[in-house]
Amino acid sequence: MSVRRCLARHQNPVSHNPRAARRSKILFCMCAEPSYDLSGAYNGHAIVFLHGMRVTRRMWQPQMEALGPEFRLIAVDLPGHGSMRNEPFHLDQAVEEVARVVDQAANGRALIVGISLGGYVAIEFGARYPEKAVGLVVTSASAEPRGWYNVPYRVFFAAMAYLPERWLSRLNRALFLTVYGKERAQPLIAPGFYMRGGAAGIREVLNREYGPKLAAYPGRVLILNGSMDLGFRMHEKRFLAIAQRGELEVIPRAFHIVNIDQPRLFSEAVRRFAKSLTW
User: By CB distance 3.0 to 4.6 Å, which of 8, 10, 207, 217 could disulfide with 27?
Assistant: First the structure.
């Protein structure tokens, strides 16, 4: 039995029956490491969260806590990261993984929320599986990753692909602790960093064109960016214009990792959008 199948069959995130909870724990322990977290309102509308490069599904902890009382929440590890670290990142495989999770944990349909690398995966998912996406929230991923302006990302790719992972992990840990402090940084630093998976993600995304893919998705799209994330806001107006049913919201005093920079504002924006959808 696969990890995903085992988890989907036995996990009940809202069970209040002690005997059932003990049985669930036993079954959970018999399975390998799960590839997604499932929590929140069991009968609520489903939201699937896709993380950014080199981090894991744990980055969504503030939203899992804030939105749990109202929605069924699923945070996924993408290939090359976290529990999926042994599966190389390929965009096609990432999209298929999201589709499997939506089928298993969200009854085949969900709001897809992606940030950075996860945002590009969300756009690709919407183009390929529009019937499975009630809507898209695309965060920190409204820049076309092609052309002269992707040179810094090529440098970033080379560093993550070839420099020692231990050194890179220490550098990232120190950076996040400095920027966010110990408590706020935990969802990013506690699971560790997956530099080679992140590098593969950058390589897969570079030189693709996402505007046409976004245009192909017929549902509603919320482009949700941090006001100070200038590099990834480069084409947000173009993305807004090309989306069939697009909306734009910019969160003040936020950089690239918007959901950690301004967790309350980010969660409120997702909540408003989710409640406005026709499920």
Answer: 10
